[in-house]
Every structure is written in structure tokens, then in C-alpha cells.
Design a protein that fits this description.
The chain has 16 helices and 13 strands. The chain is globular and about 60 Å long. It has a domain at 227-360: 3-Layer(aba) Sandwich (Rossmann fold), CATH 3.40.50. It is α/β, with parallel strands linked by helices and 369 residues long. The strands form four sheets. The protein has a five-stranded parallel beta sheet. Strands 10-8-12-13 form a four-stranded parallel beta sheet. Helix 4 (102-110) links the parallel strand 3 (97-99) and strand 4 (117-121).
Length: 369
């Protein structure tokens, strides 16, 4: 169940989150499980596919806006604009934080600020509830309770681009009473993810700790690049990353195109994204096009389909695809790849070891607990 929650965030990303993409106390877990089952088990495949399609289109439009650099700071080094370029005034002392994205919540915990989170989104509560103060309020990131948020008197509210996917400012009433709301849109690249980390660190007074995380992230990425540089061109493998698994009713496959951090991850590993030349960030491929691409490896980020690897391996019409013939089909850790923070490097390592075990097989996962 844990790895199913954030596949929707990747659709708006990311989602990654993203994206993109659990375990609260008993009451919180029961409530969130019910919500999750409603979203994942009760909803039809039609709703799921439409949600992915609409959200992907929304994100493609939103991410045309270049995120601002954390260099826009006051004399004390505190950001004066959020990652979406909005003017913000960060309090001198940040002690009460509301985190409305699992990627942010996970980072705050890693920075040692979990006990300062006074409320969070429901996904964060399910994922990290056992690492947060018991019984803190949880909000729907798409329609948060502004009145309750204001009543909590937070010093800062970290939001995600997913909350604005509907086209309206769902935190307008919070901003109206001068609460600092810092928006962090879905990042398109690893460099933008690093800037997100530095931005959050600068807002809460954890600049040094955030810089250390980014430094470790870059060191791991450089280690991957160094190995990938030794992979001969004629040994490079083509990879299909699937956000959704084709069905008779919905045969389209949503995948990652250019200008996404997942595409960058694949390239960094030394792989070739079969959709890397697509115009859209999250293009939809027909089954015929996916089969014709004949990928050497298939990576699935579909966390809705049970036993997704065997489903893909046994899909009629895919028997001649190299990845299927060689059983090179793998389910990616939805938490790591869908949540744009330093933990995406864990997903990179896993993918690298699956795609090129002869080159990356001995490497240890970074940031893993």
C-alpha cells in the first residue's frame, strides 16, 4: 500500500513527483487507508487514466515557468521569493512548519525538523506519521482547510505544484492573513531538485545541513556518471518507463519524455529513453508504438496494477519485445522516484543496477535507511 500513494503525484509531478510519491498512528492510518482505497481500488481505470492525462497536461503548462534561484535572498541569506517566483516573507525564526508534500516532509525529517511539523498532507501522514508528532492535523493537498491552517498559526507552509493543478490558489485565504506560503512546483531536473532542497534549508535555518545533503547527492550522481562513461555505445540499452500499464480498454502508455528528471536519470545511468525525443513531458504512447520501440528494459512506475511485472511479462502482443523475452522488467520504488528530493538518487541506483548489473551491481544505495 505504501508504494501506491504517490503515483498520482507523478502525474502532476511529480512528480513527481513528483513526484512524485506511509504509516501513521492507528486512527490516522485507518482514515488514510480508506481514502487511499477509495482513490485506488474503488475508482475505475477510466478515472485513473483521465486523471493522469489531465494532470500531465496541466503540469506541462505549469512547468514552462522557470523556477527561481535561491540566490534571491535578503542580507541574512533568507529567500525573498519561493520556488515559483512569488514574493514571500519568511519569519526570522521558523519553529512551526506545515508541510503539504511528502517529498518536503521526508526532507524535513532528514534535516532533523520532523518535530517542528505541526500539520501535513494526508499522504505525508500515511508515509511518515510514525516519524512525526502524534495526532497532528492532516489536510487534503488539493483542497486544504484554510481556516484550520490559519488557526494553527504556522510560521511557514510549504506547498506543492500539485495543489494548484486545478488552476486556482487553494491557499489564498492563508496568504490573505500574511502567513508565509512557500510554493515548490514540480521540478523538471536534478539540478532543480537540489535547488528545492537548498531553498527549504534556507527557509528554516538549516542551510548547512541542506548543503550537505545536496553535496552527497551530487557525489552519488557523479559516481554514477563515472561508471556510465565506461559503457560502450554499442552496449547502451533502450528503456521504456511506464507510468501506466496498457489494458484492453486503455491501451495507451503514459511515459516520461524530454525535460523530466526521470529522463535525466535514465540518461545519467547511460541508458536511452525510448520516449526521450517526445515533445511532451508525459507523452502517451500507443501499444503499437511501444512494442515497435522494442525496449531492452521496461521499468514500471505503475503502482496501481498488482504484480505489475508479471502482468507486463504476460501481456498479449508483447512476446517479441526484447525486455519481455529476457525478463528485463522491473517495478520501480514509487516512493523514491515519485518524490523529488535527494532520495531520487536511490531510484537511480536501483535502475542502474537493473539495467547494467555488470557495471553497477556492486554499488550501495545512497540515503537508504
Amino acid at each position: 500500500m505504501k508504494k501506491k500513494l504517490l503515483s498520482l503525484t507523478l502525474a502532476t509531478v511529480m512528480a513527481a513527483s513528483m513526484f512524485t510519491a506511509c504509516g501513521a498512528g492507528e486512527k490516522e492510518a485507518d482514515t488514510t487507508k480508506a481514502e487511499t482505497q477509495t482513490a485506488q481500488e474503488t475508482e475505475t481505470q477510466e478515472t485513473t487514466k483521465e486523471t493522469v492525462s489531465e494532470a500531465a497536461e496541466t503540469e506541462s503548462q505549469e512547468t514552462d515557468v522557470e523556477t527561481e534561484s535561491v540566490e534571491e535572498q535578503d542580507a541574512a541569506g533568507v529567500p525573498t521569493k519561493d520556488r515559483n517566483g512569488n514574493d514571500i516573507t519568511v519569519p526570522e525564526h521558523v519553529e512551526k512548519i506545515i508541510s503539504m508534500a511528502p517529498s518536503t516532509t521526508q526532507l524535513l525529517i532528514d534535516l532533523g525538523y520532523g518535530d517542528q511539523i505541526i500539520a501535513c498532507d494526508t499522504y505525508s501522514g500515511y508515509s511518515y506519521g510514525d516519524q512525526l508528532t502524534a495526532d497532528i492535523p492532516q489536510f487534503d493537498m488539493m483542497s486544504p482547510d484554510n481556516e484550520q491552517i490559519v488557526a494553527l498559526e504556522p510560521d511557514i507552509v510549504f506547498t506543492t505544484g500539485m495543489s494548484y493543478a486545478g488552476g486556482e490558489d487553494v491557499y489564498a485565504a492563508v496568504k490573505a492573513v500574511d502567513v508565509c506560503v512557500a510554493d515548490i512546483p514540480s521540478s523538471n531536473s536534478l539540478a532543480e531538485i537540489e535547488e528545492d532542497i537548498l531553498f527549504i534549508g534556507a527557509c528554516i535555518g538549516a542551510e548547512d545541513a541542506a548543503a550537505e545533503i545536496v553535496e552527497e547527492m551530487e557525489e552519488n550522481i557523479e559516481a554514477i556518471k563515472a561508471i556510465a562513461a565506461d559503457i560502450p555505445e554499442d552496449e547502451k540499452k533502450t528503456v521504456l518507463y511506464e507510468l501506466s500499464t496498457p489494458t484492453p480498454d486503455y491501451p495507451q502508455i503514459y511515459t516520461c519524455g524530454a525535460n523530466t528528471y526521470i529522463d535525466e536519470m535514465l540518461t545519467t545511468i547511460g541508458a536511452i529513453n525510448v520516449a526521450g525525443e517526445e515533445e511532451y513531458q508525459w507523452p502517451a504512447l500507443t501499444e503499437e508504438a511501444a512494442v515497435a520501440a522494442n525496449p531492452d528494459v521496461i521499468l514500471s512506475g505503475d503502482t496501481y496494477t498488482p504484480d505489475v511485472v508479471n502482468v507486463i511479462l504476460n501481456t498479449e502482443g508483447w512476446e517479441a519485445v526484447t525486455a519481455v523475452q529476457e525478463k528485463a522488467v522491473y517495478a520501480v520504488d514509487g516512493d523514491a522516484i515519485n518524490r523529488p528530493n535527494q532520495h531520487v538518487v536511490e531510484a537511480m541506483y536501483e535502475m542502474a543496477q537493473w539495467i547494467y548489473p555488470e557495471y553497477f551491481g556492486e554499488m550501495e544505495l545512497p540515503f537508504a535507511a
